[in-house]
């Protein structure tokens, strides 16, 4: 009976089983790789999304920081303007105080001017103090604006970093997805790591931008407060200048009341009034007829409270007979006697003035109190003229 060989059959079955096992193992590995690659791709995508979010936030922070810096700069400009105006007010107040002080020095006994000068000086000091504060506030606002600008620059740089990181993360996520589709888990994992790193960079940039924006906002607030304070200081300086100006004006007005303007002088008058200086009399008529001649009027001398005597007017000068003067000046100094004339009313001058020249000077100083004496003198002179006339007529008869 023939023998049956079974060994080859066993060998083939064993080989097939081994191949199937290997295939199954490979399939499992492939499935695992695909799963890992897919997971890596998913992680990369998530990282890219996070990077994008960080980039968007960073951009917002940078924008806010820039706005804060711009506002801070505007406040700094306002503070500087207020400080400049305050300094101008302080300078004007000091000038007013100086004027008031000069007036007080010229009239030290005037308590009103002295009080005005003190008020102006106090106001000038207040304006100076306010201007100093405004300048300090302006400096604070300027520093805050400068720091805000620096913070805006930091935020802007962070925005650039975050944007670049987000771009990197998105590229890595795309590569990871491709690797996952091809089942290359190793490559997918590598790309996923790159995406994660980029996302981390974007997140860090976001944090930096956030801090910078916060600092810029704080600087903006500081600059705003400083500008407000500077404006207030400027108002104080302006008010102080106004006070100093009013005080200086009051001092000047009081000082002006001390001035006594001199009289410019006109012609003397015949009315009786007080005078700071007497007027000079006018000229009487220098010729006359054989009958009583008269001058139209003698100038009125300075009578009354004048500090200088007036020059008396000339009486009428007649060749024969006694002339009469309607008015005779009082208080004038003359060198030759008038030919007759009677004293009239006394005149005085309200201002200095010359009404004419003497054609014949008079001697003595006539006054109402000297009228009787002057009358006697005139009678004597008339007697002499009469005697001379009689003698001349006798001589004429003798010669005939």
UniProtKB/TrEMBL annotation:
<feature type="region of interest" description="Disordered">
    <location>
        <begin position="22"/>
        <end position="160"/>
    </location>
</feature>
<feature type="compositionally biased region" description="Low complexity">
    <location>
        <begin position="202"/>
        <end position="257"/>
    </location>
</feature>
<feature type="compositionally biased region" description="Low complexity">
    <location>
        <begin position="286"/>
        <end position="298"/>
    </location>
</feature>
<feature type="compositionally biased region" description="Gly residues">
    <location>
        <begin position="299"/>
        <end position="332"/>
    </location>
</feature>
<feature type="region of interest" description="Disordered">
    <location>
        <begin position="202"/>
        <end position="371"/>
    </location>
</feature>
<dbReference type="InterPro" id="IPR019931">
    <property type="entry name" value="LPXTG_anchor"/>
</dbReference>
<keyword id="KW-0812">Transmembrane</keyword>
<keyword id="KW-0732">Signal</keyword>
<keyword id="KW-0964">Secreted</keyword>
<feature type="domain" description="Gram-positive cocci surface proteins LPxTG">
    <location>
        <begin position="360"/>
        <end position="398"/>
    </location>
</feature>
<dbReference type="Pfam" id="PF00746">
    <property type="entry name" value="Gram_pos_anchor"/>
</dbReference>
<protein>
    <submittedName>
        <fullName>LPXTG cell wall anchor domain-containing protein</fullName>
    </submittedName>
</protein>
<feature type="compositionally biased region" description="Low complexity">
    <location>
        <begin position="269"/>
        <end position="278"/>
    </location>
</feature>
<feature type="transmembrane region" description="Helical">
    <location>
        <begin position="371"/>
        <end position="390"/>
    </location>
</feature>
<feature type="compositionally biased region" description="Low complexity">
    <location>
        <begin position="22"/>
        <end position="105"/>
    </location>
</feature>
<keyword id="KW-0472">Membrane</keyword>
<keyword id="KW-1133">Transmembrane helix</keyword>
<feature type="compositionally biased region" description="Low complexity">
    <location>
        <begin position="115"/>
        <end position="160"/>
    </location>
</feature>
<feature type="signal peptide">
    <location>
        <begin position="1"/>
        <end position="26"/>
    </location>
</feature>
<keyword id="KW-0134">Cell wall</keyword>
<keyword id="KW-0572">Peptidoglycan-anchor</keyword>
<feature type="compositionally biased region" description="Low complexity">
    <location>
        <begin position="345"/>
        <end position="356"/>
    </location>
</feature>
């Amino acid at each position: 009976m023939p023998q049956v060989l079974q060994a080859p059959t066993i060998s083939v079955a064993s080989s097939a089983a081994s191949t199937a096992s290997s295939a199954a193992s490979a399939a499992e590995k492939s499935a695992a790789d695909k799963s890992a690659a897919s997971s890596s791709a998913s992680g990369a995508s998530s990282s890219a999304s996070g990077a994008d979010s960080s980039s968007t936030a960073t951009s917002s922070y940078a924008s806010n920081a820039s706005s804060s810096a711009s506002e801070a700069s505007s406040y700094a400009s306002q503070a500087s303007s207020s400080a400049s105006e305050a300094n101008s007010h302080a300078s004007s107040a000091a000038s007013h105080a100086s004027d008031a002080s000069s007036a007080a020095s010229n009239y030290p006994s005037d308590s009103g001017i002295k009080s005005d000068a003190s008020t102006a000086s106090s106001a000038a000091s207040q304006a100076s103090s306010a201007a100093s504060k405004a300048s300090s506030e302006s400096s604070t606002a300027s520093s805050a604006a400068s720091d805000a600008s620096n913070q805006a620059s930091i935020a802007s740089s962070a925005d650039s970093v975050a944007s670049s990181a987000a771009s990197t993360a998105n590229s890595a996520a795309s590569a990871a997805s491709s690797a996952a589709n091809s089942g290359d888990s190793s490559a997918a994992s590598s790309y996923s790591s790159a995406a994660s790193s980029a996302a981390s960079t974007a997140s860090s940039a976001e944090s930096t931008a956030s801090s910078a924006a916060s600092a810029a906002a704080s600087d903006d607030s500081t600059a705003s407060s400083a500008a407000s304070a500077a404006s207030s200081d400027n108002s104080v300086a302006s008010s102080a200048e106004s006070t100093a100006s009013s005080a200086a004006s009051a001092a000047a007005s009081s000082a002006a009341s001390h001035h006594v303007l001199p009289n410019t002088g006109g012609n003397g008058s015949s009315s009786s009034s007080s005078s700071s200086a007497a007027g000079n009399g006018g000229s009487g008529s220098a010729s006359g007829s054989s009958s009583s001649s008269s001058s139209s009027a003698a100038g009125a001398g300075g009578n009354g409270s004048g500090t200088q005597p007036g020059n008396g007017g000339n009486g009428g000068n007649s060749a024969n007979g006694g002339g009469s003067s309607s008015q005779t000046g009082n208080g004038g100094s003359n060198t030759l006697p008038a030919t007759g004339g009677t004293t009239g009313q006394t005149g005085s001058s309200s201002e200095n003035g010359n009404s004419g020249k003497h054609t014949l000077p008079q001697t003595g100083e006539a006054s109402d109190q000297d009228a009787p004496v002057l009358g006697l003198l005139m009678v004597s002179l008339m007697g002499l003229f009469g005697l001379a006339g009689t003698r001349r007529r006798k001589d004429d008869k003798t010669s005939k």
